[in-house]
User: Fold this.
Amino acid sequence: MHVLIPSPLHDYTHAPRVDAHGATLAALLDDLDRQFPGIRFRMVDEQGRIRRHMRCFVGGEQIFALSHPLDGAAEVMFVQALSGG
Amino acid sequence: MAAPLPVLFIATRKGAWLLHGDAERRRWRLDGPHFLGQIINHLVLDPRDGQTLLAAASTGHLGPTLFRSTDLGATWQEAAQPPAFAPSADGSGRSVKHTFWLTPGSADEPGVWYAGTSPQGLFRSEDGGNRWAPFSCLNDDAQYREWMGSEQDGTPDGPKLHSIQIDPRDPAHLYIAMSSGGVHESTDGGRSFAPLLDGLAVVAGFPRDQPTFHDPHCVRLCPTLPDRLYQQNHCGIYRLDRPATTWQRIGEAMPAEVGDIGFPLVLHPRDPDTLWVFPMNGDDVWPRTSPDGRPAAYCSRDGGASWQRQDRGLPAEQAWWTVKRQAMCADAGEPLGLYLGTTSGEIWGSADEGGHWVCLARHLPEVYAVEIGYPRA
Assistant:
């Protein structure tokens, strides 16, 4: 499936869109980390929680659990909520 | 072979810079930015090999990480396993918000580094900073977790573990400090710790016997007299000569109108009686500015019995910056060179032990840390 990558993570992917696979969000993140080592820990903390400013959308719906199934999803969008100065 | 030249490693709120000095420490060349826009909390060159450079990085929006360079920042590699707490089965465990403090290990243990994090955690690497692991009971011990307090008890950008000091005679003998949480000693390589708080004041109204309410800002161990520790605390300046366990408040000899509140504390690498502090205004709402808008270092050459003001060259008035706990250091020169980075983005240096100060760089982001290093090819 296509994965939209927010700009602060382009140092890892060198592209705004990449292809990755996984039956769940956790598996998708594992595949991203296999392709782009280190990217997962910037997005998800060591307790399995999506980091504070990271948002994930599948089919227009925001998802929060790494166990969320991605069956049939064509695209997963990671979006960075920017704040601060 | 020419002696290695000094480099100042500058960590800021929005990136890192390297300031290259000449042999006379008169001309300085600024290199950077590295990691523009990323928060760099600490940038440290390994004095054992003169090559391995570690940068503790995060942004406001991504998880924390560490970068390594062996060519003075020409290229960087991300650590394969940055500091992270052990996962908990029920998801209630802590997560590292940022790595705050980096300490290279003993000369007897090449490749070993320690890291202190926010929230308070202690981590160790044995491969030059590439892979980090929790190893200390401090991270998960129920008593220590209670002493660390909550986010409400910590510093404004999060409670942190800092001031990791290693006894040069024994790499298993460590001291660490936590804001909040107090000063603690380990004799088993950091696996377990015990509090070292006798004699330290706390904010009026809090109980002194509870580590949660102790806020050491910076602790340093004398390299030439490792039984001596100095401390800049939220509540004064202290000295401790082991095996005694009661800190002596040496800041009471500071001028009353300046006080003995501040963050950084720098030791002379060859003289255990000489140290510097950089006081700030800790009145009422804690402005964290130079007292009266007139910044100055204070030097003691008698172990804290007396202090001399050192402000020649620094702004004489209307300068409301201050210096954070990691943003002041000394080099190895003779006479000793001193350096500090300000919250307003300036780097100041003195090539005569604080007698005269010169601005070496300005218009940088808020400076979080300044460290000296002598790179070897």
Remarks:
- Strands of chain A lie at 2-4, 17-19, 54-58, 61-63, 75-80.
- The two ends of chain A are 34 Å apart (CA to CA).
- The helical segments of chain A are 10-13, 25-35, 39-43.
- Residues 2-80 of chain A form a domain with the Ubiquitin-like (UB roll) fold (CATH 3.10.20.30).
